[in-house]
């Protein structure tokens, strides 16, 4: 609401699969250097919304804007080329590949000429290690290490660093902290803040309110395919958000009771 | 390749395969006597390794990508028969026989690939279907066209020299093909960008697709490669032995898979190396043929083969575990 | 014998009662997979015999198993199929006695005539078989062993490509008997399943044996494809070695013609099938029974002396 043009914006978007309406009248926007936390229970339409943003689905009705201009993606590749990167849990990392090779899957740096182009392992390793270290993960120092030897948080961080390195302007993070322990999750949240600091628009999907509270600038709660609430940081309390996610039922009381 | 320290050598996927091979070589060098290691004796296992190796590497690629192709068991005899019928029975020129045979293999490989990528059926099942279909088709066509299930041919000298002859009395020319193709495959898997795609597909197909890799085309290509490779071995055998018969090359299926596994490729995909498969094939060939140089009771052959292969695989497994649990060399440089 | 005669009489009476004045024989011939070169010769014999049967107003139905994976049950299934079609007679080899004998017994009890060919002569009485047309593996091996020894062989390598296969072991036993009776010795070489139908692997295995033991001067393989492999092995061993094989193939015949292979032992499947089918019909239609029992259709040895005639048979699909 700072008057700047949002990097991505959905206006009154509906998405139906045949007779089944999944998304109704979704209007959301994210600015550069902002984190939008997308909250919602299972089945609320989160994954359909992500796929719509990532170019897997096209909106049935409504507008999809980037930098104020309407866009329409035929396939995920189009969205990627525009700088929208989706990182699924551990996505884009391959356990039995080295860090350097995994980092450059699909966009391998080569040296040599003509038909004898050779994968440039040294360059790949150096760039990959630097990119991850720049994000504050200093434990990674050897690009020849296998991904399988990294911790969950490190893998997730590597995946995010990779997306940013390849020019992502919008990062869609699909439950990046879901399977992680407290310490690992805090690593990932730090990476999210670093991405934000670099001016990237982040869509952070989670159902862990604590994690959302830690990094979010803006929140949207999705219930049965509708935006039930859309508010800025500090406008609602933790209990109110939990309540909203549960569909207005007084789950917050339960939450408090359990913590107390 | 940078630091060739002992530690970095040990964690390469092919080091286990190499040690397994050395073990088997030493074993037969001791029990097989001088004949096993002699120039003429070495041809014995190199010939077998070459025929098997040309098929094993593409099968290894498929396994790295998380697929499998057992229809090669039908492709070898089918191609052998096709070559025999076209250039033997009908007497058409050898290049025509080769092109038509390889063309047939491309079609079968393409069918395998299309079925695997378009349906959710595992490639083991799809290729089992084509295994039987191709066997049946071969039988039907050979009876229909030649009224018999075995044909003879007399290839010209140039064809023998290139595809199915002997050099130094006992070395099959196919060894040269094997070494050349292996070099090409090493480049493909470990040095070209495409190798990265293959590992990525085997690691996580969905992520690989998201990273922009044309997984569908690539998978179909791999099936065509394995089918064509099997056909190539089949037609070379016809040219070499002047004869082809309808049979099921079941032994090729198991031998190729065993070689690949000895070579350190994970059955679950995503991991392996061409040099490893190369060593694995040599190991298998030595185990298989070494027995005839020894004085062991011939009725024990299968037992000895089984035990030796288990030892080779176990050695390999140990080394792969070491590679996977490796967590950074912390070297100061 | 008396018992069998009685059984047969009873069966005959039963069949007359069942089929009444049925004019001519309806016959089922049961055989192995068409995948097997051997059974293509069998089929040619059956096809030719069918002309004779049909000329007398009968029919011949040729039933085969798909493969050898579920052999016993598949054969029983085929027997039951034939019985349910109401045939007058079945011509069949017995490969899996424990499965086939009960089924054939029950067929015989229903008045169906059983003619045997190719395999299973030892259970003929149990199933009230009329006669047996086939070769005896031992007799065939004996002929091959004697032939090689008479050609001057002192040590014969007997290659078995399916170790433990009873019929192949019997052939080797015969070779031993035939060779020893004529002053030669035999070495057995079973090669494992991992090189079955792999010509290069088999060739290298044979070559290794030839190099290892220079006293081997003859090789007999149990299958035609294996003699393709043996040919190369002998060439590379670099000394003259006699080569013989069981069964024929075009390349075997070409080598015999060219003089690079000594001989091939043929059990003449065409004769087995042709005779079994026609004699079964003749028994049902005319009561003709041969006094020779069993009738051996092999071994027929093909060598330089009769190769030209054999080649004519090959062209016709009969050999």
Automatic annotation (TrEMBL), chain A:
UniProt keywords (A-Z) are:
ATP-binding, Nucleotide-binding
**Domain ABC transporter residues, every copy:** 8-249
Kindly give the Pfam families that the UniProt entry links to this protein. Answer: ABC_tran
In Swiss-Prot or TrEMBL terms, this protein is called Monosaccharide ABC transporter ATP-binding protein (CUT2 family)
GO MF entry, a single one: ATP binding
Q: Which domain of life is it from?
A: Bacteria
Automatic annotation (TrEMBL), chain B:
CDD domains membership: TM_PBP1_transp_AraH_like (cd06579)
From which domain of life does this come?
Answer: Bacteria
A cellular-component GO term for this protein: plasma membrane
A single Gene Ontology MF term assigned here is: transmembrane transporter activity
Locations listed in the record:
Cell membrane
What membrane topology does the UniProt entry give? Multi-pass membrane protein
Q: Does the keyword Transport apply?
A: yes
Using the record, list the residue span of the signal peptide; answer none if the entry has no such feature. none
Task: Give the transmembrane ranges.
Answer: 15-33, 45-64, 97-117, 123-145, 166-188, 218-240, 252-280, 300-319
Q: Which UniProt keywords apply?
A: Cell inner membrane, Cell membrane, Membrane, Sugar transport, Transmembrane, Transmembrane helix, Transport
The family database entries (InterPro entries) matched by this protein are listed as:
ABC_transp_permease (IPR001851)
Q: Which Pfam families match?
A: BPD_transp_2
Q: What does this protein do?
A: Part of the binding-protein-dependent transport system for D-xylose. Probably responsible for the translocation of the substrate across the membrane.
Can you name this protein? Xylose transport system permease protein XylH
UniProtKB/TrEMBL annotation, chain C:
The record's subcellular location field reads: Periplasm
Cellular component terms (Gene Ontology): outer membrane-bounded periplasmic space
Per its UniProt record, what Gene3D superfamilies does this chain match? Answer: 3.40.50.2300
Q: Which domain of life is it from?
A: Bacteria
Residue ranges of coiled coil: none
Q: Kindly state which keywords UniProt assigns to this record, in alphabetical order.
A: Signal
Q: What are the GO MF terms of this UniProt record?
A: carbohydrate binding
Q: What is this protein called?
A: Monosaccharide ABC transporter substrate-binding protein (CUT2 family)
Which organism is the protein's source?
Paracoccus lutimaris
